[in-house]
Amino acid sequence: MSCILHIETSTEVCSVAVSQDGASIFSQEDFKGPSHATTLGVFVDEALSFADSHAIPVDAVAVSSGPGSYTGLRIGVSMAKGICYAQDIPLIGLPTLEVMCVPVLLFRDLPEDALLCPMIDARRMEVYAAVYDRALRPLRPTSADIVDEHSYAEFLADRPVYFFGNGSAKCRETLQHPHAHFLENIHPLAKWMFPLAERAHARQEFKDVAYFEPFYLKEFVASKPKKLI
Asked: Which of 70, 105, 150, 221 has a 20 to 30 A CA-CA distance from 112?
């Protein structure tokens, strides 16, 4: 199995992890941010030292690729690229909203027909969100949404939808529907990246280190968030 270094800086939380053989074997997290510029380097040094002290070669770097904080994503991706260049190892980019789904799928008891809607806070009643089924198939791709009482109506009509992430709390009062459920304390963390990263590594789904960029703005801020009806 591969050994992968994971970097997650898309929100105010800064986290780094190392995985091997389908498990996280090292993890550091800072919830007091945003202080990624000073914290990330320390965490990465500790992670690489841990791997080196256990004679574990790092095979790849996985980084959360957004959507999320402009500054946080730039810091995380720049660090990941630097390590890949220095050690001549591949880069894996993982959608942040998919990373957020991992702990929900691993540790929450959900109905078979449940849908997942991770949300990252934007501003006012705006969020970056996507809708997935339990196999992480996207039923609606990542989009910038202005949330009102009619949002996600087509999904809430006949299936339970679980909303979570730092954008979901402000939507709780607005999305008053019997099929709307809200999960607390779900963050995109490096230690939850390993199932997605190891699958990408096995499939050799690597990014071009020279040209890879996070997608914090390209698809979203270039046009105004849309109102879901």
From this structure: 150
The DSSP line for 75-141 is HHHHHHHHHHHHHT--EEEE-HHHHHHHHHHHH----TT-EEEEEEE-STTEEEEEEE-TT--EEEE
Segment holding 195, helix H or strand E: helix 194-202
Contact 92, 206 (CB under 8 A): yes
- pLDDT 10s digits, 1-48: 689 999 999 999 999 999 998 899 999 999 987 789 999 999 999 999
Q: Which of 154, 151, 150, 158 is nearest to 113 (CA)?
A: 158
- The reported pLDDT for the residue numbered 222 is 46
Rounded CA Rg of the chain: 17
Say if residues 21 and 88 touch (Cβ distance below 8 Å).
Answer: no
The model carries a pTM of: 0.93
Q: What is the pLDDT of residues 145-181, one digit of tens each?
A: 999 999 999 999 999 999 999 999 999 999 999 999 9
In residues, how long is the chain? 229
> For the chain, percent helix, then strand, then coil, each to nearest 5?
30, 30, 45
